[in-house]
Amino acid sequence: MFKSNEILRKQTLLKGERKISVLICICLGFTIHVVAVYWWYRRDDLLYPLVMLPPKSIPPFWHALFIIMVNDTLVRQASMILKCLLLMYYKNSRGRNYRKQGQMLTSVEYLMLLYCALLPTPVWYRFFLNKDYGSLFSFLMTGLYLTFKLTSVVEKVKSFFTALKALSRKAVRYGAYATSEQVNAAGDLCAICQEKMHAPILLRCKDIFGEDCVSEWLVGLRGKERTCPLCRALVKRADLRSYGDGSTSLLFQIF
């Protein structure tokens, strides 16, 4: 998965030059793997948590971990399949469609993170109801777990809906679309690529760049201070992390 994640990021950056054959191979490989695993373990209660139902019987601790980790891994692979399909769809897009591509990839990622946060809930709910540990301990642990889980899920829901709202938002993450007058005053050449600007973005420092170019510039500064390519003025960070580079979070959601 780590290698496929890196390949997916590279294919996203290639834009119109991305290779459809590579994306198809990733899709087919993950599809076969997901179907094969669920068929092979079809009697091990793997499918119940996918529809938020607890396992039929109380699972031992290590079996509960097995169910959660397998489902978590396969759901992330399924999200990568969907991202590959989006990249194939947007392969020949230009201008603002690349913004839509990035927003779609981000929405898919936050939907996956929300779903992965919910996946362990029915498994641990069934596990903590084990009366062998005593009724008081069982009810106490179940209540504590569901309370903490609710807190984390609420944050995931907020992030997902924020990503959805960005799909229809006209303003962009680091500024606003420049008017034709502003573009004419600045010149119609992007200072980053030295070509005609597509979907020109006016940053808060009043410099203008093509949307694709400035987005790539700011994504490349991840972990550092985000600055304007020309005047080095600080660019306010996004309220929501973007996954427009095609990356997928691979951190397991155990609890």
List keywords for this structure.
255 residues, mainly alpha, 8 helices, 3 strands
Summarize the SSE layout with pairings.
Elements: H1 2-14, H2 20-40, H3 61-89, H4 96-118, H5 120-128, H6 135-168, E1 175-177, H7 180-186, E2 200-203, E3 208-210, H8 211-220
Helix pairs in contact: 1-3, 2-3, 3-4, 3-5, 4-6, 5-6
Could you walk me through the main structural features you see in this protein, from its secondary elements to its overall organization?
The protein is mainly alpha-helical. The protein contains eight helices and three strands; from the N terminus they run H-H-H-H-H-H-E-H-E-E-H. Strands 1-2-3 form a three-stranded antiparallel β-sheet. Helix 1 runs parallel beside helix 3 (61-89) and helix 3 (61-89) packs antiparallel against helix 4 (96-118). The protein starts with a helix and ends in a 35-residue tail after the last helix.
Unreliable stretches (pLDDT < 50, length at least 5) are none
Q: Largest sheet, described in full?
A: 3 strands, antiparallel
Whole-number radius of gyration?
Answer: 22 Å
**Total number of strands:** 3
The helix content is 55-70%
Report, as a whole number of angstroms, the end-to-end distance: 21 Å
Q: Helical region count?
A: 8
Strand content: under 5%
